[in-house]
# Entry
Amino acid sequence: MTLRGRPFPLVIAAPSGAGKTSLARALVERREDVVFSISATTRPRREREKHGTDYYFVDDAAFDRMIETGELVEWAVVHGRRYGTPRRGIREGLESGRIVVLDIDIQGARQIRRAFPDAVLVFILPPSAEELNRRLTGRGSEAEAERIRRLRGARNELPAAVEFDYVVVNDDFERAVRALENIVEAELHRVRRVDALKPALEALDGELGAILERSV
# Structure
């Protein structure tokens, strides 16, 4: 007998530079039952990023249209740029029986929880403030003013960790990915997600009854 819970949206959020995007993509690569939700954004594309793979890079007019037509299940302004999650990607992923991973910000995580009460929220923490600063400095794509703004943003976002279901410290990448995999497995075995549990219990009860009758 195999019991598996319903798929769910898995939100991975963190202060900028904590490594949530790398962790989310690693989780998708390692599990066939997990698919990545691609966000739309108005921020410029960074080197090596691909449209339709990392983000849907759109201008403000296109983003406005997505809001007006209800295409976005959530959207927020982060560091002066807009980010949003297309509703279609989540719906199609869940309907195909896969867990949908969302790499989004704190504001977006709150909106997803309202839209999908069954969603699971994971907050990624850096191992230290110094390491977070080092990662932002090492990006090379951030101007000094932008780095300072992201560090200040991190201070504002950290208190939101208590609103989440799980917290993972990204001090060792492999260990952090394993923690995410363990969260997925645990949630797939949560009783409220297993729709087939009741008939499975009834079947087992019938089988046990038959064994007992033969044993009398």
Remarks:
- The CA atoms of residues 15 and 155 lie 8 Å apart.
- The first strand starts at residue 9 and ends at 13.
- The beta strands are 9-13, 34-37, 40-41, 56-57, 72-78, 81-86, 99-103, 120-125, 166-169.
- Helices lie at 20-30, 60-68, 87-95, 106-115, 129-138, 144-157, 173-188, 197-215.
